[in-house]
Amino acid sequence: MPFRQSVKHFLMHLSWIFILPSSGAYAYQTQLPDLGSPDLIEYDTQTEQRLGRAFSVALHTEFDLNYDPEILNYIRRIGERVITQTGDNRAFSFYVINNPSINAFAGPDGVIGIHTGLIEAVRSEDELASVIAHEVAHITQRHLSRQYEYQESEGSIASIASIIAAILVGTQDPNAGMAILMGGQGYVTQKQLSNSRQHEAEADFTGIKFLYKAGYNPKAMARFFGRLSRQSMSNSGQIPEILRTHPVTENRLAAAEDRAQTMPPFKPREDNGDLRLIQLRLQSRQKQELGKLFNEIPLNDDQRCYQLNDLDSNPADKNITKKLKNLQCLVKLAKSESKQPLYTDLLLEKLTGIINNSGLPKKDRTDWVSQTKEIANFAQILYPQRQDISIRYAEFLEAIGDSKQAKSLLLQHSSDHYNFLINQKLAEIANQNKDWGYAYFYQAQAQYNIGNIKYTAHLLKQAKEKNKNANNDLTAEITLFENQNRNQLNSVEKTEE
């Protein structure tokens, strides 16, 4: 690959490191535009989409993403509530990164990442939504386009040299690498810093509007950033990453509070308890000290039931009677708390684990399978769009030997915007049933969903090869998929010529 192309590819994968998490002090402006500054020069939509796909692939291949269906569904439901208020018709994508730092970022073409450390740090869903709204605003305000334009027009060679140096040094000390990057920019860096101040102002200003219109407390943004700022001042040397990428000053907090005050009276939403249960999932999976997240407000009985069963994840423990006894409280909650399907999810997840690892005793199997299917079917009726429920139910059905219904259930989500996990699960079922052609085909669709077009093309070829002599509908399905996505698949073929 020629040097110029290498550098371009390099920049595409690294742009999020230095472009959107802004730095520098905050300068509040009383009148801020909702749609970006007048000097905005955007790159074209196709370029942004290509950059977004490359960025998404980098996230999935180079970082530790959290693929827990419940956690992903929770973040995406908040994100979707916010983006419906933006008027922006792009296909936003929300991902969760396994990283203890309190941080979030906005990347190209609507890709937003939330660190698990941030989810654990917030005290309410409103605070979590406020950060998501802020990142969404970075994208709707076209902040990436502005920074990209300045880099192209001023000091490109110096910037490239600094970035390469930063990465080389950053292999041992990322902070030192970024210091070299910023130190080598000179006048360009100063201009970018000035723009970052404006961008943070706009993201707060616009994000609070999105937050309120989505039904969240507009005061949550200032409250969350203010608390982090106070905690960092009393805990010298431990500044949360989000305060480095979204620096807080008294002026910024005051501006956010003033902006919230301009909103009409706010009617609080009913708290369904999702945040607490999601934080419990993170806590148990990251082997944190019990009670660390909840030292201010004790768990109620329902949450203790959830925690008890979520922590009971030792497959080597053969005490099935004890495990089933613990599940009784989840059964009761799943039946009575229809507004809280996370109890149903955990019941399905844990019972599936018991079946796969030890098997249900014959005397208990019929009753447990029957009542669990009844609970899951009801949840499916209430929440047909929730992938987490469908995935957990499909896993349960597969465990009891009903692969056909499991596949049918998952295929209902095949046209969802986020179908990576759905297709991964379909590929897993096909693989277990030695249906190799479909296993490759579903993997191809999963890779297409995250923007990995080159790997998609490779997997489609494998699917055709494995399906040569099979008597099924796969050939027609592959042809339809290729026709629907011909332009992008052709772009891979042209690149390889």
UniProtKB/TrEMBL annotation:
User: What keywords tag this UniProt record?
Assistant: Hydrolase, Metal-binding, Metalloprotease, Protease, Signal, Zinc
Signal peptide positions are 1-27
* Matching InterPro entries: Mito/Outer_Membr_Metalloprot, Peptidase_M48
Ranges for the Peptidase M48 domain? 74-259
Q: Which cofactor does it need?
A: Zn(2+)
Q: Name one GO molecular function term.
A: metallopeptidase activity
Q: Name one Pfam family in it.
A: Peptidase_M48
Cited CDD domains: M48C_bepA_like
**Family annotation (Gene3D superfamilies):** Metalloproteases ('zincins'), catalytic domain
Name of the molecule in the record: M48 family metalloprotease
Q: Which organism is it from?
A: Thiomicrorhabdus heinhorstiae
